[in-house]
Hints:
The complex is a heterodimer of chains A (191) and B (60). Chain A has helices at 2-14, 17-21, 25-30, 35-64, 73-95, 97-103, 107-111, 114-125, 130-158, 170-185. With 191 residues, chain A is mostly helical. Chain A has one domain. The radius of gyration of chain A is 18 Å and the shape is globular. The two termini of chain A are 14 Å apart. By secondary structure, chain B is an all-alpha fold. Chain B has one domain. Chain B has helices at residues 2-23, 53-59. Chains A and B meet through helix 3, helix 5 and helix 6 of A and helix 1 of B.
Amino acid sequence: MSDLFTLFISALIINNVILTKFLGMCPLLGVSTKSSSAIGMGLAVIFVIFGSSVFTYLLYYSVLVPMSLEYMDLITFILVIAAFVQFVEMVLKKYSMGLYKALGIYLPLITTNCVVLYVTLDNIIKGFNFVEMCVYSLAVPAGFMLIMYIFATIRERLELANVPNAFKGNPIALIVVAIMAAIFTSFAGLV
Amino acid sequence: MEAALYIAVLGAIYGVFYYLNHITPKPAGCEELTAACNGCSLGSCGNHPSQNFELKETVK
C-alpha cells in the first residue's frame, strides 16, 4: 500500500510530467489563461489518460504479447488513443450535454497531447501490474491538472502585473514555468 | 501478415468511431463552442487563432 502511495505522490508532484519531462507544453501555454479552462482541460485529460491506459494495457498483454507483436505498441497506442477520444466525444454528445459543454471542446486537443502517449508507453516500459498502472494513470494527469491550475492562477495575476513589453505573453509564462520547476524539484526527498 | 491485419482492424475501428462521432449531432446550445486558447507558438495546431479560416479571409 505504501508503495502505491509513493508511486502516486512521486508521479503527482516530484516527477511531475510537465515540470520534469516538459511534455504537454502546448495545452499548458494555450489553455491556461483562465483557471476554469485549466480545470476543464485537466478533468478531460484525467478521463482520457485513465481510460486509454486501461485499454492499451489490456490490449498489450492480451493481444500483442501472445501474438509476439510487442514492436507494434507505438502505432497501436496511437490508434487506440485516437479511437478512444472519438468514442468518448460521441458518447458525451449523445448522452451528457452538461459534460460535453464542460469537457467536449478539450477532447480533440487531447488527441495530440503527448502526455497521453507517454503514460500508456510508460506503463509498459516500467512493467507495472494492473493496480500500479491504475494508480500511475491517475497520478500523472492529476499532476498535469495541478500544474495547469496553479499556472493559470499565476497567469491571471500576471494580467494585472506591470510586465515589461519584451516579456509579455509566452516569455513571462515560460519564466514562471521554470521557477515552478525549480520549486517542485525541492520535493525530491519527500518520499 | 498478422501485423498488417492487426493494424487494418485497429484503423477500421478508428474509422468507424470517427464516422459515428462525425454524424452525431452536437447537443443544443453547444454548436458554437470554441476552445479558450489564445495560441502558443505551434501555428500548425488546429486550435491556434491563425487557423481560423473566417479570420484569415477578413484579414485578406
